[in-house]
Specification:
alpha/beta, Rossmann fold, Isoleucyl-tRNA Synthetase, Domain 1, 2 domains, 4-stranded antiparallel beta sheet, 18 helices
Length: 473
Amino acid sequence: MTRYLTTTLPYVNADAHLGHALEFVQADCYARTLRLNGEDIFFNIGTDEHGAKVYEKAVEAGKDPQAYVDEYAGRFKTFAHALDISYDSFLRTTDLVHVAAAQEFWTRCSAAGDIYRAAYRVKYCIGCELEKTDSELDHGRCPIHPNLDIEIREEENYFFRFSKYQDALLAHYNAYPDFVVPEERMRELAMLVSGGLKDFSISRRREKLPWGIPVPGDDEQVMYVWFDALVSYLSATGWPADETNFRKWWPVMHFAGKDNLRQQSAMFQAMLLSAGLPFSRQVFIHGFITSGGAKMSKSLGNVIDPITLIEKYGTDAVRYVLLRHVSPFEDSDLTEQGFADAYEGNLVNGLGNTVARIMKLAEEHLPAPIVLLPEDTSVEPAVLEKIQAFRFNEAMDLVFEHVAKGDAYMTIEEPYRKIKSEPEEAKRVIEKLVRHLAKLAAHLAAPMPATAEIILNAVATNKKPENLFPRIP
């Protein structure tokens, strides 16, 4: 079976944050799980490099926009590597293949009669790069970017006939009630679309925003950043030039934050219909990470930098916390102390200690590495099912139940005592514990791949590894 997965493409107007890390790690765990289960996976990430926010940041930094986005795209690629993200494609919206795809997509929507030119006056949040209705504002401010003033914009641009696709979208949602996960977000989306859709602007005047993909046939306009960026999920497959590759992988499964619900699940789907292309496969929507009960902000001093966490605790520790201690669906609160407690309690004293104790016994008392059987490295169906249902925290709970079971078995059997009085029985217990470690490694291969590899290598060589998770002073 083939499967195409994509994260959203982060704006390059700032460094990567913990929300980006969450989305990347969730998608990567999902992709690795499917690959280990024998599926053929195409996993796309990348960077969204056009739009007003990016242009303003480049001007503010005194840099050419292309040089600015090149630098930040490199930072995001380094960030993905630091998190051990196993992506197959890193799509940049300044790539020539994407520019060509976006212009072809525009041409198809125009040919369908869904693009027209009109003057408009809207309320606009530059933080979201989206127009806002009064119902979407809270006391006149965007609830996602309450520190930014809402702008009133008046100009003549091109529009997309979003309103035309209300019935088609609702019919699709009714036919596929799990099109958006979780169910709460599906209900939210259905209510939004049922309430009526307004056509949205898909271009900006070049004289005001020179940084964007040119509109086909109109050099005075550039594409609106959301219209351009959403096409990236197509261009990553080589569409439209490589139709064979596109058909191999499409439809796509999206990983996105709750602030992307409308864009991924309604706007993009209507655009696909207009261009004569199939709907996406599914959209998984995750919540936000807060810290100390508040949205992270530099002014509050509660920002948790994922790179700092990686440097201090290690990549797999960060992956572990994001997958087990952050809700896949709801907003979650995470503090540096909470992270430290999870690291010390579950990794240092839990998994790391278990591996060290068992492999020390094996190295000292087993004459040779054990020969693993297929069942020693098989993954329980329950864990696979949890991950494929996006319940990453519940899957990790199941895995760490086995860590606790290994500890309990060692406590009951006491092989370190029996080795003197009942050496053969002690060796049988130790061998069983080593097989247990191999089983744990198989279950950790997707969420904590480097840790899984170290454990399997320790089993294969019958050597105790260096401490998996050293204590942090």
